[in-house]
Design brief:
Elements: H1 9-31, H2 34-58, H3 89-172
Helix pairs in contact: 1-2, 2-3
Amino acid sequence: MDILAGISTEWLKALTWITAVAVGVAVLLWRRRVTAAALAAAVVFMAASAGAGIYVLNHLGDGRWGGDQQAKLSPPPLTETPVVGKFLEPLEGMLGNVTDGVNEFTDFQSALPVALDFFVAAGWALALSVPLALVVLAVSAREAKRRNAEFAAYKTQVEQLRQELDHVKRHVGYPEHDII
């Protein structure tokens, strides 16, 4: 079952954008980071565009890509020729194969520019996702450095509080290995 059968080329392009924006907004709401949302949207747009290009190439005979603008070739009926029609059956079969090949080629020729538009969009999304990934990596590294500094500060504070507690325990006279 082809769920994209009724979708035009313009809607297929719009679907790639809609999917990317929806994922970007979802990641923004979930992670609260603009860079991560932009990277997710770029990667989803790249995947959706490449998928749309592959879909177009898998459905060459579809009229949405412009293949129905040219008339389809059909072989002449040679078997209906009087007296020699029976002997021309192999030639008619060969001509049928040739015309089928020409029709498939014209369908491919019509669908290729549409598919290439999607592949070019995917390439631009890939080119955009590389610097975005570097920015996300730099922001994540800075965040990890900040968290490590906070953890070291908390660890130092815990050690200081532990020493103060030991001092208070000695002052009060609690045993040294008590739970408190």
